[in-house]
Amino acid sequence: MSSPDTRPTSPASSSVPRTPPIYLSDENAFRRAFDAEFNAALADARSKLGDAATLAPRVVETAFVNVWQQRASLTTHDQFKQTLADELHHGAARALSRRAAAQISGAGSMLSGA
């Protein structure tokens, strides 16, 4: 009968990536996380977008798609929420930038057509 291995684990074994938590492991689990966070994410996007709040649903949708694509690197719910918050921030900034560029472009074409 052999005794259990009580040697300390090597540093290499601690660098093995952990399996993502259950809530990110499949589409149904991610859908539950989406449903749980959607209203808060939508409110956050609307507050970031100000008078462009009508863009919020698209920003939120894109943020969740980006989080889904990063799910393998997220090991905790806190990481999930932080990544979602980062994606919302960047998505709102992109939406505002595109809106401003469209307004500038539209104003320029109106002037050149006069």
Describe this structure in words.
With 114 residues, this protein is mainly α. It has one domain. It is 69% helix and 0% strand. The chain has four helices and no strands. The N and C termini lie far apart (94 Å). 17% of the residues are buried. The mean pLDDT is 81.
In angstroms, what separates the terminal alpha carbons?
Answer: 94 Å
N-to-C order of helices and strands: HHHH
How many DSSP H or I helices? 4
- Count of all domains: 1
Q: Average pLDDT across residues?
A: 81
Largest β-sheet summary = none
Structural class: mainly alpha
Q: Measured on Cα atoms, how large is the radius of gyration?
A: 22 Å
Give the tally of β-strands: 0
Task: Work out the helicity level.
Answer: 55-70%
Fraction of residues in β-strands: under 5%
Shape type: elongated
Unreliable sequence segments: none
How would you describe this structure in keywords?
114 residues, mainly alpha, 4 helices, 69% helix, elongated
